[in-house]
Amino acid sequence: MPGEIVPAGTQAGRGQQSAMRASHADRDRVAELLRVAAGDGRLTPDELDERLEVALSARTLGELAGLTADLPAVSVSADGVVAEVKDVLRIDQRWSRVRREGRWVVPRRLELSVEWCDVTLDFTQAVITQDTLRIDLDMEGKTLTLITRPGIVVDSDGLALEFSRVRNRRAPDSGVPTTLRVELVGTKRHGRVVVRQSRGTAGRWLPRRNANG
User: Which pTM does this prediction carry?
Assistant: First the structure.
């Protein structure tokens, strides 16, 4: 059916289809399924990173099939965006980096419990379906980096800092309405919180000056 990803193990059994060359769209769909599975707790962050690396370099549908054979089907919209938004995404990690980037689906709440891990949440291409994201933080050491785009604001007033600091690089007012408010609450110990705009979009939204003015 259109708008549905079937289990990849089923695809692999359809004659010669597994030997067919994979397209960019095929890789993107599998990558999205892997991200949703990680959000459901079916994959660990390390497993997600490993499978994403393979998915993005896969040459055939058969290679992609092996990455999702142990995962359930997920319904997606016509443009490949996952329709279901998770209420809570929990990430519990020690001693390894955590990174969310690309077209990942922003949950309604994110619970981060990490120790000595660099954490990067890149909202540049993220799929946003609500106006507020609450991040409950329990983080020891290293740096939490939030990469935003115009229309995304970060409020860290509810965050308790212990031997830590926040650096929020606020961009000039671009006139873009707020589409997402990120609320940081909880505790950050021994490290930093850095909020910055994507380097690729920092100047793109600023009003152009009249060259004759």
Answer: 0.58
Kindly report the three-state secondary structure assignment for every residue of the chain. Answer: CCCEECCHHHHHCCCCHHHCECCHHHHHHHHHHHHHHHHCCCCCHHHHHHHHHHHHHCCEHHHHHHHHCCCCCEEECCCCCECCCCCEEEEEEECCCEEECCCCECCCEEEEEEECCCEEEECCCCECCCCEEEEEEEEECCEEEEEECCCEEEEEEEEEEEEEEEEECCCCCCCCCCCEEEEEEEEEEEEEEEEEECCCCCCCCCCCCCCCC
Q: Please give the Cα distance from 207 to 113 (Å, whole number).
A: 40
**By C-alpha distance, which of 125, 157, 146, 162 is closest to 195?**
146
For the chain, which residues make up each domain, given as ranges? 1-84, 85-200
Residue-wise pLDDT tens digits, 118-164: 999 999 988 887 889 999 999 999 999 999 998 899 999 999 999 99
